[in-house]
Structure formats: C-alpha cells, structure tokens
Specification:
The chain has about 300 residues and is an all-beta fold. It has 1 helix and 22 strands.
Amino acid sequence: MKKLLLLLLCIGTLQVQAQWTLNNVINFDSGDVLYPVAINIDTQHYHHNQWQIGHPSKSVFYGPYTDLNAIVTDTAHPYRPNDTSVFTLKMPGNYGATFEDLSFYYKLNIDTTSYGMLEISGNGGATWLNLLDTLPYHLRWYTTPDFRHSTTGWASATLNKSSLALMPDTLLFRFTFIAGNDTMGKDGWMIDEININYWYTSGIMPPPDAGLCSVYPNPSQGNIYVHTDFAMPCLARLRVFNMEGREVYQTNSLPSDGHIYLPLPDGTYYLHVSSSEREYSRKITIAPKYSVWGNDFHI
C-alpha cells in the first residue's frame, strides 16, 4: 500500500539545487487518513447521492484499481436513472510547495444519456469551471479524459500545470455523475488511486518566493509600489491574475520607482513578477475607495 505522504528528495551533484516532490495518495483503503478530510460526498444538495466508498462488487466494476476500495456510484447496484451525484476533492495544504499535478484512474460503464463531469473552483466553491471546456491557472491535460463514453478497462487522467501557473491557496475539484434515462442497469463511474503532487526547489538556488519582494500598500485602491531585488527591474515582467486564473493585467517593464496603477475592480488578485534571475508571487487586494487604512476599516 502506498503511504499517505511520500516525500522524495531528488539530489543532483553538488551544484545548484535540489528538487523535493510531495505525493499525496488517496486510495480509500485502511490507513488512508486523507480521504475523510479531502473527500466530501455532497448529500446536503444531492439527497440521493449515489457515490459510495467501498469494495465494488458489480457486473463490470468487480474490483478497485489497487487494494480493496474505491469511490463508486453505488458499490453493489446499478446507478439509478435520472439522478445527479456529486463529490468534491479539497486539495490538502501545500506545505509551502507548489501544486504540480492531479491524476487518477477511472472506469465508466454508462448509457448514451449519462456522463461524468469534472470542475474546478479557486474561490471556495463560489464559481466552478468545467475542466473539459476551459483550463484556468495555465493548467493542461497530459491526457484529455473522456467522461461521456464507457471505458474498456481502466483509463487514467492527469492534469498538470505549466511553468506559468499561478495557483490559488485552495483548490476544489467537483466530480459529478449525471445519470440519464436509461434503465438497462449500467454500473456508472468508479475512481481510484487519486494522486496529488507538489514540488519545490531548494539549495543554492532560492525557491520562487524567496528573497526580497514587497508590494505596498496592500490592500490598496489600485496604486501600488512593487520593489524587488532584481538587478534590472526595467526588464522584469509583471502579470496580475484574478481568482479564476485569468490574466487581467500585464506589463513587460517595472518603472524605476516601482509605482504601478492597476485599473481593476475591487477584489483579490495574484501578482506575479519575474525576471531572468527569479520570480515572485504575491496575493494583493484592491479595496473600495472609501477605506480608512490607519484604522484598518473598510466600507
């Protein structure tokens, strides 16, 4: 059985840096303490939710991918028609590291009117984006999954980030199974071996957020000062992303005095500044213009 947290240290020669990989595995088996806090089967909004965790014993789903258990749309019976079932995956704390990828194995045994859906939220579930329609935060599919057709055996899905990805503090993934009107007794959707990976670098080369970078005032009303330890700030690139991962502002040169005006609506954003030397990310807030900073009072 894979360990819940597997910390691998990849050490090169005595040169510049080391890369750490933190691997979280959810396999729904005994000793897996992560899934009770990371997985939520939503019976509050979906009272007839068919997702269950256990050993599958059906005509097609007769065993999990590894060990004993998986998460299945009913472990023993065909899925009910004309129903919707949902569970969410909350990414565990990133331990100061950067989200790298999410992968899992799945089986589908469905009719032509049923399908699965995977969505993402970076703002605590206020809004959701279908990951088969759009990919925020510079995410990308290593292998694009197909949740609308039955699989032949186990299939895998891997979602990873590009080097430009800027991630929110908390990511939520929502797995939805929408059952159509067929009554032929199909097995539904089964998922197992969910892997969540993080990575960071350390050693002589500082990690992306090490060093000196200050953004003030924060909160601001759009006028900010960005000061870094870059040797040539005029060659630095600054990008701002909203909470859904969309770029809303960018400039390819930092002013000599560091002053920048961000013509953006009130809200929380991620500021990313980079040069050939290193890069930094900072969360910033643009507040209403009627704010009393000295008293930390906001209207």
